[in-house]
Amino acid sequence: MLYRQISEAMCYMHSNGIAHRDIKCENVLLNRSQTVAKLTDFGFSRTCFDNKTGKRLLSETYCGSAAYVAPEVLKAQPYNAICSDVWSLGVVLYVMVNNKLPFPFEHDLKSMLKYQCEKKYKFAVPLSDSIKDLIAKQLEPNIQSRINMKQVLQHKWFK
User: Fold this and answer.
1) Does the structure show a pLDDT above 80 at 106?
2) Is 108 annotated as catalytic?
3) Of residues 22, 41, 108, 129, which has the active-site annotation?
4) Tally of structural domains, the chain
5) Cα separation of the two ends of the chain
6) For position 11, which CATH number holds?
7) Residue 105: is its pLDDT beyond 80?
8) Structural domain harbouring 33
9) In this predicted model, what pLDDT tens digit does every residue of 14-67 receive, in sequence order?
């Protein structure tokens, strides 16, 4: 499963304190037979912990593609880049199963932020309750309630 491969790569990066910060469909490459997925473009990647103290560092660089970034990034406040990666990967999953972006207001960021915070997205095709649940847990605007990559991989949808 392609999404599992990408999720495992993100989980590995996060377990090593690294955030990608530019997760989007264009940065996922598939082999010719579309059986292997590879995450690419690590230009915005960064460590999320201070090497000396081990303390978590918040990111103050507002990078990534607007259609994929989490609400906390759009708000232009210091943010936990690992949590925002989970959101972006949720957008990728949404696109994989719906063939469209969940929040279509990329050029009107204020409207897009409002739709993100109100969880206003619809599924274009019939989907199982388990995949809808996984997407909802990744596209959770409250970072305190958003799942992490370990929880993504343990989600019932993967079973």
Assistant:
1) no
2) no
3) 22
4) 1
5) 11
6) 1.10.510.10
7) no
8) 2-158
9) 999 999 999 999 999 999 999 999 999 998 999 888 888 888 888 888 888 889
